[in-house]
């Protein structure tokens, strides 16, 4: 665990210096206990020899004073180091996560990241100091006492040493049980956290159902599971913990019995016996505290493992000489195959090839799971293709500096996330330095001005966490306004008009048409609605991860093939008509 912690921390030197200070304190404590031997030997005579005891007492006073000074120094330094280590570890996690493929940020991974940054990093910093220091003391004090005892009476030292392997075996068993219990309890706590968030978000639904105070069945089940896991952990830990305590107590009883026998037999003087008894207490007492620390140490080890799993995620590969400028706005797939997850998984795309010329608007159509979203993710290099090449501006996307590539790509996500800020600031995130005129022009093009006009505070209206105060269609308009304001030459739109009311669907469709109307802009839009298809001048139809048809919408409809059937399904569902368009040359 020490090696894993050392490799994890961004500045292990700070922890090593603090550990060295704690080690000095522990060894000094053990040596001070050793001074009892000559002091008691001088004072427990029939005629006490204060002159012989005085130098040892003075040395002991100096040692106690030094120990106190070092303790005063170590305590505030330790707490400061705890906060500093936690902060540095958080910075390291954030810096690493910023290099990961965007496709890594799934719901599960986002939860792991939040846990690593908020809880695990702080716990590691705190436990490394507040638990690490007592653990060092509980280890080095007995080791120092053992060396001192060996110099005084080797027989008692051997008795001390005989306790160690039994204590180590039982402590190791207790540690394994504590580690498993901590992992189970962590999972149960994560389940409660998820259900608690759900409980807060679903209050209107729960109150309408008369369950506003009791919560959902899943929340009650999560609470009961947490209680059961905690009880199960206590039951499993009971025997190992008692076994370790029995070994330590058994060692003390053995030392007491053997010492009493040797005193009564005359082979051990009373002064040495008293000193050895004190040494026995200070040898076994710190060992006894290890059972109280082992649970926290294992919890820290588990936290280290969770953070290492985040830091161990491979970063997005960067070229040695990255290209920093996108020369033109065309997109091309050439024999692209890609699968999520482990190698050998079912491919999401199979040998996909098509081209989107500069200034074109391409609609990706197909049933759910056909690979449409995967296409847009590969263009923005959320992932790298398993085989084949994705090109932007004639170059492999892997040849670009990723930040430079994304500067020329705007993405309108299906699920738009808005920050708990004003509408204006949520748009300006795409171009913070834009002028007022540029902002208003982008808002009008996205028809977002209609939304602001009917709100009491207009552009200064706060949207709430995640944009909760706006409807889905209004959030889509904010996202499209970002695309206009960013003025990127490539725009990827992921089902922006799906599941919207007619008013918002028309507004979003008009905004997409406005985006597509710029001859310098290439648009790739996932289309599930005729209003979205109306803005396209070419279609790529996907099914099962393969391209089954490509061409202009009107021609494909007349051909009566795969796209024509899909279009009829869309038309019947929305009762919209797709006007024929002449494809751009």
From TrEMBL:
Asked whether the UniProt record includes Nuclease among its keywords, one would answer no
The primary site where this protein sits is membrane
Where is the protein found, in the record's own terms?
Cell membrane
Topology in the lipid bilayer is annotated as: Multi-pass membrane protein
Residue ranges spanning the membrane: these are 20-44, 56-81, 123-148, 154-171, 242-260
Recorded protein name is: ABC transporter ATP-binding protein
Q: Could you say which residues form the signal peptide?
A: none
Entry's Gene Ontology molecular function annotations: ATP binding
InterPro entries in the record: AAA+_ATPase (IPR003593), ABC1_TM_dom (IPR011527), ABC1_TM_sf (IPR036640), ABC_transporter-like_ATP-bd (IPR003439), ABC_transporter-like_CS (IPR017871), P-loop_NTPase (IPR027417), Type_1_exporter (IPR039421)
The entry's keywords: ATP-binding, Membrane, Nucleotide-binding, Transmembrane, Transmembrane helix
Keyword field contains Methyltransferase: no
Recorded source organism is Streptomyces johnsoniae
Which stretches make up the ABC transmembrane type-1 domain? 18-299
Limits of the ABC transporter domain = 331-569
